[in-house]
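Course assignment 3, question 2. Fill in each field.
Student: A.L.
Task: Predict the tertiary structure for the chain below.
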Amino acid sequence: IQMIKLKSNYEKTLLILSGLIIFSFFYGFTIGEDSLGGAKHDYIFHEKYFTMFADDFQNTINNYGNNQEVRNSPLFYILFSKLVKLGFTNTDLKYFNLVIIFPLIFFFFKSIKIKYKEISLVSQIILTSTILLSPTIRSLVSYPYPLLWAISFFLISIYFFLKFENSEKKEKKYSNAFFCVLNLAIASYFTPNFSVFILFYGYKFFLEFKLSKNDTAWWIPAFSY
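Answer field:
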């Protein structure tokens, strides 16, 4: 009985700690935390693209990156410029940017459940909450920047890769491989740095499927997912 009680107290402590981490994250969001150090600076420098794409898309896209002042693709700024055209202010964009944190947490949790089936639900929750301690995530959620969205879609691609590795049916492997590559592609459109991971995924998929150059319709089963 004493051991059960100790275990219960231990799990309660973990849940309280997890709650404190979540609280600190949202508190940091409200005060504009920049634990990364340069997130605010980068945001102030790049926020002009939200209005530039909204006001003059053609001229902005033609001159985007000409002065080598940007390291990311224009996709993020184009998407957010659509919100500006709808009447969103830069402050509104900050709150819209917060939306991406929810799929990030969800798929991180789902990935942990697949990878570490043997650990308890409480342990899975505390592991998931630790992602909110990342200075990158805490800072970029307050100051909209493409990297946070790229990280989120990359994490989703990892989730489908883990499902691919744990699938027994061939059709499921095809569909999970498809969605893995799809989300990696989206992440790479936000930030090209992630495109290098196609080498790892492609190697794993090749070993599994042994595809030849004549296998042009391998992705069709993905739509039956």
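Instructor remarks: Residues 89 and 110 are 34 Å apart (CA to CA). The first helix runs from residue 2 to 31.
Grade: pending
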